[in-house]
Each structure stands twice: as structure tokens, then as C-alpha cells.
Amino acid sequence: MIRRVLTALFALVVLGLLANHARTVDWGEVISSVRATPLRTLAIAAALALASYATYCSFDLIGRRQTGHRLKPSEVVGVAFTSYAFNLNLGSLVGGIAFRYRLYGRLGLNAATTSGILALSLATNWLGYFFLAGGLFLWRPLQLPPGWAIGSEGLRVLGAVLWLVVAAYLAACTFARGRVFHLRGHTFELPPWHVALLQLALASLNWLLIGALLYTLLQQRIDYTSVLSVLLIAAVAGVIAHVPAGLGVLEAVFVALLSHRVGQGELLGALLAYRAIYYLLPLACAALLFPALEAHARGPNRTEARASC
Predict the structure, then answer these.
(1) Positive or negative, the Cα torsion across 183, 233, 203, 39?
(2) At 148, is the pLDDT very low, low, confident or very high (cuts 50, 70, 90)?
(3) Could you give the CA distance from residue 272 to residue 224 in angstroms, rounded to a whole number?
(4) What is the per-residue pLDDT across 46-101, written as a single tens digit (0 to 9) for each?
(5) 239 Cβ neighbours under 8 A, 6+ residues apart
């Protein structure tokens, strides 16, 4: 109860700060920056977004292999795409979790199998995050604005900790006896080492593609590693703030960390285009796909054999 209250208060403080900051933004400059973006740049960004979504959907295909269910790959991709788009825009509880349980349940999977898929997808995503963030913070720490309390050494320590987490996961997948653990009444099985390496590769690729998308929309005004580092920091800030779609949090982090290198109007213009391409366009597609998936499903009793693991 106390945790929920503190989280709500933190979110309100963040929203208040963002609303106050929004009053100081020259939105005319931001819109002009978006309009000045070349069509070729937008086309490349859209292609990178498509590649990222395709990579993310492969996480659930790994889950299909691990849990042994027999849904068609096209059905799995449809559920993963829809869940991811709603997750980005409405938050993980609604998108990443509720939509997966709803759609996989309609397609005949039981809750235990869906939980296994969800756990593997989450682990895959954060495994790639920890690996990239750890490497960047350890070997190429972000050049922070003057006056920030944490410096390069602090980032290096954090990077080392993140790499230790990745190493521990890979070691558990390689050496743990049975590779089974229990959490809140659910039983999860760790994948074998070669699947863990595949998780690491695919999740890293996904984060690299998102970073490349932002780097493209910023039209190479800032080096790629800095853009990727700020993206990774903003992703965690969005999770902590519990703001749907990280709305305003992403922008605040980018402005705070990069506005001393690029104009605020150009930064916010690129981020506005990013939200349109990576958030809103896929959400519109997912909104159309969701009823199609519902219609395709045959109800909760659909082929129980498909849920076998």
C-alpha cells in the first residue's frame, strides 16, 4: 500500500515538473523541425522501426520453442506485435501482460504457458538492455552536462554491476541444476545456454535498432553511442515514473542530457517524429489487428493440446 502511494506521488511530481517545463518550450520551433525532416530520413526511420518490431516479436517465438506450445508462428507474431504496441503506449500491465494473457488464452494456451512466454520475453528484453548499458557505461560513459553529481566513474561502476547480472544469468542457464526456479506460485525454467545467447543477441539487436532510429531522426547531429546511452537511461526513467508510454519522461531525459549539444527544438522535433513512427503508427495497426486476432481465435477451449509443454 505504501509502495503504491509513493509511486503515485512520484508520478505526480514527475508530471508536474514536465508540465512546468512544457510551458518553456518553443513549440513552433519543434513543429518546424519536424516539417524540415527529409522524407528519406523518415523512410529509413520507418524501416528501422519495422526491423525492431520484427526482432521483438522473435522473443515470443523463442518462448514458443521453450514452452513447447503449437500455435502457428504467425499467431505468435500477431500476439507479440499487438502486445508490444499496446505495451509501449499504455504500459506493461495493460499491453505486455494483459493483452498476452487475453490473446494467448483465446488461442488456447493456459496461464502457466503464457506466464512462461511472458517471463522469457521480459528476461530477453532486459538481458540485452543490461548487456548494452553495461558495456556503454563501462567502456564509453556518457559525457554528462556540467554540474551533474554522478560522473564517469559512477557510470563505470554501474556498468560493471549490469555486466555481472548478465554473466550470472548466462552462468545459471549453463550450470544450474535443472534450471528451474519458483516465483510467487509460478514455476519457470531457464533456457539452455545456447538459447540464452540467442536471447542476448536478439535483445541487443532490438535496442541497437531503436537507438539507430533515434540517431537517424536526429540526422546524425549527435554520435550514435551517446544517443543509445541516453535512450537506455530514458527507458529506465520511464519504468520508474510509471507514466504511460513514458510520455514526457523520454523527452525530459533527452533534453536534460543532450540539450547542451543540440538545440531543444531539434531534439523535441526528432522525439516527436520518433513517437509517431515507433509508438502511434504501430498502435493504429495493433488496434486493427486485435479484433482480427479475437475473431480468429476459437475461444478459451481451443485445442488444449496446443498448450502442452
Answers:
(1) positive
(2) low
(3) 19
(4) 999 999 999 999 999 999 999 999 999 999 999 999 999 999 988 877 777 888 99
(5) 246
Per DSSP, the residues of the chain read -HHHHHHHHHHHHHHHHHHHHHTTS-HHHHHHHHHTS-HHHHHHHHHHHHHHHHHHHHHHHHHHHHH-----HHHHHHHHHHHHHHHHHH-TIIIIIIIHHHHHHHTT--HHHHHHHHHHHHHHHHHHHHHHHHHHHHHS---PPTT-SS-HHHHHHHHHHHHHHHHHHHHHHHHSSTTEEEETTEEEEPPPHHHHHHHHHHHHHHHHHHHHHHHHHTTTSS-HHHHHHHHHHHHHHHHHHT-GGGTTHHHHHHHHHHTTTS-HHHHHHHHHHHHIIIIIHHHHHHHHHHHHHHHHS--TTS-GGGG--
Q: How high is the pLDDT of residue 243?
A: 66
- Report pLDDT digits (tens) over 243-296: 666 677 888 889 888 888 888 888 888 998 999 999 999 999 999 998 888 887
pLDDT one-digit tens code per residue, 168-183: 999 999 988 767 776 6
Tell me how long the chain is: 309
Instruction: Report pTM.
Output: 0.85
Beta pairing partners, 186: 183
Cβ contacts of 90 within 8 Å, gap of 6 or more: 244, 245
Q: Please give the Cα distance from 80 to 56 (Å, whole number).
A: 8
